[in-house]
Amino acid sequence: MAGATAPTPSEYIVHHLAHLNTSGEAQKDIIDFSIINIDTVFYSVLMAVITGSLMYRAAQRVHAGVPGRFVGAIESLVEFVYEQARSIVKGDISYIAPLALCSFVWIVMMNTLDLLPVDLLPRIGELMGLHYMRVVPTADLNGTLSLAIVVLVLSIYYGIKAKGLGHFLHELVAAPFGSSRNPIFAIILGVANLAMQIIEYVAKTVSLGMRLFGNMFAGELVFMLIALLGATATWWGSGLGFLTGLGWAIFHILIITLQGFIFMMLTLVYIGQAHEAH
């Protein structure tokens, strides 16, 4: 009877790709702004709290003399991020460098949740009466696009701060094609320039969010396929599933770190571009 009620591979994957949301059931429409993915919000906030706690702990343990391994690692990371920010952003980085550091560490921490056994937390959730749960916030397009929108808002903010509101608005209608003294041509070029600027901002935001989402979603899906392989009722299926999962997890550590680094660098690049005049 257990075999009769066991989900098929497709049902298993579909179930694991459904979010715990405010509707209480799997989302049916591709876009539904009335639904909030509770699991994405919860694990994002949880990783933010853990990240802040680790950084606070490192700051509290900084003292004169030889630092411990934990403090030394954090200091090396901070110095590395500040050097990257200093080389990319031609302006005041007193707030930009901490932003880049926060985004890198936070995204890596959220990505690391993908290394947990794919059924562990969802199974615990089922015991608590939660039928759906996805653990990795960066495997949810809502989460990654939210991060990308924050970068968009900050790039506009720093563009206005560095150039002034008038110069910033002038660039929106005067770049990249320039302007003209002829009023008719000036209007035509202004509309074309504004359209190109909007397309550029939208393309940056979507690509930033989609890049992180695509890599983490693919990694999560591979772990689900490996879990299905490990569930095969044969000794070689279980053994192959374990070895495959271990190998993918080791390789996935590189992806987890690399995606956080790429997001951080693109954040610095976009904010750095906001400081540059056309």
Describe this structure in words.
This protein is mainly α and 278 residues long. The protein has one domain (2-274). It contains 10 helices and no strands. It has helices at residues 2-5, 9-16, 38-60, 69-88, 96-112, 120-127, 141-163, 165-174, 183-230, 235-274. Helix 2 crosses helix 9 (183-230). It is globular and about 75 Å long. The termini are far apart.
Question: Keyphrases for this structure?
Answer:
278 residues, 10 helices, 72% helix, globular
In one word, what is the shape? globular
Task: Work out the number of β strands.
Answer: 0
Instruction: Please count the helical segments.
Output: 10
- Indicate the percent of residues in helices: over 70%
Gap from first CA to last CA: 70 Å
User: What's the main sheet like?
Assistant: none
Structural class: mainly alpha
The number of domains: 1
- The radius of gyration computed from the alpha-carbon positions, rounded to a whole number of angstroms, is 23 Å
Give the rounded overall mean pLDDT. 87
Strand proportion, as a percent range, falls in under 5%
